[in-house]
C-alpha cells in the first residue's frame, strides 16, 4: 500500500510517500522559519501563501524521487486540521485535487493523530500506550487505545510548552525560534540561582499550565539590570527549563499512574512534538518512565516535529480500517482527538 501525505497546518510545508511496510520512500519538509523570523512568530497569512507557493513543487519532487506516479498511489492523505486555517485549506484542496484527478480515495487526517501514531511507523509499537504531545501549539497527555480512539488524561489550560519556551526566549532576547536558543543558553546557566514556580505540581489532575511560570520569568527579567547580561540570560533560561521539566515530570508521573491502572497491558510512554528535542526533558521523561514502569520511546526528531510522513502513515492506518473521507470534507481549525473530554478551564484554552 502506498500513500501520499501532505502537511500544511502550521509553518512547515511537507510531502511524503509512505508504504504500509513502514518505509518512507521519499519526503520533503520546507520550513518557513525565515519568512516568519522578522515578526518573532508565525504569521498565518504569510504561512498560507508560502504553502500555496511551494506545495505543488514539493509533492512533484517527492513523487519523482520515489519514481512514482499518482496512478501508483492507493490513497492521498492531507492534514485536515487542527491548525492555521489558511494553510489547512491549501493542503486539503491540493490533496482532494490529486485524489479526484487520479481517482484515488481521499483521507483527511487529524494532525494530532499524525503525531500520535508516529511511534507505530518508527517502531511498530502496539496499542495501548501513553502519549505526551509537546509542541508549539499543543501540550496533552493521551492514552492511545487505537486508531481514532484516544482518551485525554490532561491538557494545558493556557499556553503550550513550546509556546512558553518561545515567549520566554523572546523576553530574554534569545531570538526565534525560542526553544533551541533557550536550550543553548541554558547550557551555560545555573538552574538554581533563581527560584521559579513548578506550575500545577501536586494537583490531582494531569493538566498543564505555563502562563504563571512565564509571568514569573517576566517579573524576574524586569528586576534584573537591562539589557540582560549573557550570564543572567543563561541563568534565567536554565531556571525556566528546569521548572518546565520538573512540572512536566510531575504531570506525566500522575498520568502514568492512571494509565497503568486503566490500561495495565500498556508498556510505553511515547513523546512527540518539537519540545521533545529538549535534552533535559528527554532525560527527565526517561527517569519518570523508569519510575512508573513505562519505557520511554521518542521517535527520531525529524519525525517528532511537523512532517508529512506522519500524515501519510496515519492515512495508511485509517485506510486499512476503511476510514476514508468524502471530497466535501471541510477543513477544521479545531479538532480534538478525544471529543468526549471536558473543556479545560483556563485562559487561552486550546484543546
Ligand atoms: O512540533 P513543532 O515543530 O511544531 C508545532 O508546534 O506543531 O514544535 C515547535 C516547538 C516550538 O515552540 C519550539 O520552540 C519548540 O518546539 N522546540 C523546543 C526545542 N526545539 C524546538 N523547545 C525546547 N527545547 C528545544 N530544544
Ligand atoms: Zn505538530
Automatic annotation (TrEMBL):
Keywords: Acyltransferase, Cytoplasm, DNA-binding, Endonuclease, Hydrolase, Iron, Metal-binding, Nuclease, Transferase, tRNA processing. It catalyses: L-threonylcarbamoyladenylate + adenosine(37) in tRNA = N(6)-L-threonylcarbamoyladenosine(37) in tRNA + AMP + H(+). It is found in: Cytoplasm. The keyword Transferase applies. Fe cation binds at residues 111, 115, 306. Its cofactor is Fe(2+). Binds 1 Fe(2+) ion per subunit. One of its GO terms (biological process) is tRNA threonylcarbamoyladenosine modification. Residues 23-313 form the Gcp-like domain. Gene3D superfamilies: 3.30.420.40. GO terms for cellular component: cytoplasm. InterPro entries: ATPase_NBD, Gcp-like_dom, KAE1/TsaD, TsaD. Its EC number is 2.3.1.234. Substrate binds at residues 133-137, 166, 179, 183, 278. CDD domains: ASKHA_NBD_TsaD_bac. GO terms for molecular function: DNA binding; endonuclease activity; iron ion binding; tRNA N(6)-L-threonylcarbamoyladenine synthase activity. NCBIfam families: gcp_kae1, T6A_TsaD_YgjD. Belongs to the KAE1 / TsaD family. PANTHER family: TRNA N6-ADENOSINE THREONYLCARBAMOYLTRANSFERASE (PTHR11735), TRNA N6-ADENOSINE THREONYLCARBAMOYLTRANSFERASE, MITOCHONDRIAL (PTHR11735:SF6). Required for the formation of a threonylcarbamoyl group on adenosine at position 37 (t(6)A37) in tRNAs that read codons beginning with adenine. Is involved in the transfer of the threonylcarbamoyl moiety of threonylcarbamoyl-AMP (TC-AMP) to the N6 group of A37, together with TsaE and TsaB. TsaD likely plays a direct catalytic role in this reaction. This is tRNA N6-adenosine threonylcarbamoyltransferase. The lineage of its organism: Bacteria, Pseudomonadati, Pseudomonadota, Alphaproteobacteria, Rhodospirillales.
